């Protein structure tokens, strides 16, 4: 026998088709959740924990529960303060006296035009930063006692 034939005979003796199973696969997620699988696990004495998820697999993100309805009734007193109509009128008059549109004023103070519209209509929740920018842009006071009065331009007190 030549060297090549010896090598070939060794290859023939080794079994390439043998498969070794290292571990058995457990049940899939769907099988593990079935009633039968839970009962079988309980009979074997294994710890089984089941938890019902609230509104699982359903589109219930907008459903009204008792607590939400209760909250709605209570929030009548707990609403955010809005900008007064007086402030809105002052902003509108100041903007028009400078010849600015809502969009122009918004661009000048780096805000969206909708913000100016909300402040003028009294829908906005007051933000001191935005009010300060509008005050400087139109030159009129919007906060405190002197609403509508011109801003005195003097040195800042530190």
List keywords for this structure.
158 residues, mainly alpha, 8 helices, 0% strand, elongated
Unreliable segments of 5+ consecutive residues: none
Distance between the termini: 105 Å
Largest sheet: none
Strand content: under 5%
| Radius of gyration, taken over Cα atoms and rounded to an integer in Å | 38 Å
Secondary structure: helix percent: 40-55%
Shape: elongated
Mean pLDDT: 78
Name the structural class.
mainly alpha
Helix tally equals 8
Characterization of this structure:
- It contains 8 helices and no strands.
- The chain has helices spanning 3-13, 29-33, 35-43, 66-74, 85-97, 102-108, 113-121, 128-138.
- The longest helix has 13 residues, at 85-97.
- The radius of gyration is 38 Å and the shape is elongated.
- The mean pLDDT is 78.
Put the structure in a nutshell.
Keywords: DNA-binding, Transcription, Transcription regulation. It comes from Saguinus oedipus. Helix content is 47%, strand content 0%.
Outline the fold blueprint:
Blueprint: H1 3-13, H2 29-33, H3 35-43, H4 66-74, H5 85-97, H6 102-108, H7 113-121, H8 128-138
